[in-house]
Specification:
With 128 residues, the chain is mainly β. The protein is built from no helices and ten strands. Helix content is 0%, strand content 55%.
Length: 128
């Protein structure tokens, strides 16, 4: 259907018509965006993300993937990364690629760098 408001109704086999209902159709042509500020991490959980997709169709949480070196490395629900593999040791860092796809197939990717400068105290930043 074309974008815009449409009237919808049903007709049964003897010609009786249901009430008319209005349905709004909108096409999403915008890519999702992912931004983050004040990222915090404890153990291997990173939080502090925000996500949006300018057209309002919503990001499908099941469409988020987290990879490290091209292999699956954890999960991301739109605000928190958990279950990360290959978390860095003391004095080291690791980069994770978070790929988000909205429910019309538009995609965006960001790189998150997780560091552990001291034992058990992680920090995270989004790499432009």
């Amino acid at each position: 259907p074309q974008a815009g408001a449409h009237s919808v109704y049903a007709v049964d086999r003897v010609g009786l018509q249901s009430s008319v209902r209005s349905v709004s159709v909108k096409f999403d042509a915008d890519e999702p965006t992912i931004s983050g500020a004040s990222l915090t991490a404890t153990s291997t959980t990173i939080s502090g993300f925000t996500s949006s997709d300018g057209a309002g169709s919503g990001i499908d949480a099941t469409a988020y993937t987290v990879t490290s070196g091209g292999t699956p490395a954890g999960s991301f629900n739109g605000s928190t990364m958990t279950g990360l593999t290959g978390a860095p040791g003391i004095g080291a860092s690791a980069d994770y690629l978070v790929y988000a796809q909205d429910n019309t197939g538009n995609g965006a990717a960001i790189t998150v760098r997780l560091s552990q400068p001291t034992d058990g105290d992680y920090s995270a930043e989004i790499i432009p």
